[in-house]
Amino acid sequence: MPEAPAPHHTRALRDAAGLAAAGLVPAAAVPGLEAVQARYSIAVTPAMARLIDPTDAADPIAAQYIPRAEELVTAPHELLDPTADEAFTPVPGVVHRYPDRALLKPLLACPVYCRFCFRREVVGPDGGLLTEAELDAALAWFERTPGVREAILTGGDPLMLSPRRLGAILARLAAIPHIEVLRIHTRVPVADPGRVTAALAAAMGTETALYLCLHANHAREFSSAAATALARLTQAGVVLLGQSVLLRGVNDSAHALEDLFRTMLRHRVKPYYLHQLDHAPGTARFEVPPEEGRALLRQLRHRVTGLAWPTYVQERPGGAGKVPLGPVWEVG
């Protein structure tokens, strides 16, 4: 579908009434969605709103960002903290689950709020921004933990930070002798590409190896503006990886996954992870069973180059970390 004309709004839509005014939900749905927004944050950027076809009830972009009343129904297997971040938090803003790497969460704000997010109980527009003292303590933790060789900035979305603040965080991490790799997890280049300014790209310039892991789930998220943002990053020397979540109604077909991975490669994004859905509350409608995911990947094996092949992974409960799900191949 071609990109729709720009909607009348210029700021992110943050409530049910705004979504209705933009024509993205029917007015009759507003009361039910107001109950959702009381519990979970809503944000749809103009860039994403332009990609939504409001006449298509099965639009894969809308499915990711437009709230639905089902979000208030928690299935028995769903967990408030499916990745068990809290149990692995030595200081505020740090998650240390694996021996050689740790997460740094400098803020909990995002440009958009995905309806399947495993941190949806904590992310929101108030930002959850670490104070200067908390950020200093988090960075000091990295400095005194020599077993950690990789620092992963996540959140929230680290590219919501100003170039100055992002650059200062990266510079301090890069100055730690035992930190060999820096990684940033973000949706900004597709969800709010105008944020990827020359200054923001320059802030990621570092002697330490830096990888930016882009979260995108459908080929249509790669708009012309997103292409410009990604080109700016690659021209600045940033290495791009891609991570996606296997989602019912978004990318649960071999055709959709092939389009997604091929589109990533055209934009110099190497598909890295395809995630099995984490069991966050109210997300059951997105569930694709692992056996179906394996079957989809088997269909792709001889249709796409190995460059387009991600590792299909699932987060084990209780914070036990990721494991690859396959598929398993018979040899002989």
UniProtKB/TrEMBL annotation:
Radical SAM core domain mapped to chain residues: 96-308
Provide the alphabetized UniProt keywords: 4Fe-4S, Iron, Iron-sulfur, Isomerase, Metal-binding, Pyridoxal phosphate, S-adenosyl-L-methionine
Could you say which residues bind [4Fe-4S] cluster here? C110, C114, C117
GO molecular function terms listed in the Swiss-Prot or TrEMBL record: 4 iron, 4 sulfur cluster binding; isomerase activity; metal ion binding
- Provide the cofactor list for this protein: pyridoxal 5'-phosphate; [4Fe-4S] cluster
Query: Which CDD domains has this protein been placed in?
Result: Radical_SAM
Family, according to the entry, reads as follows: Belongs to the radical SAM superfamily. KamA family.
Q: Which NCBIfam families match?
A: AblA_like_2, KamA family radical SAM protein
**Official protein name in the record:** Lysine 2,3-aminomutase
**Which organism does this record belong to?**
Falsiroseomonas stagni DSM 19981
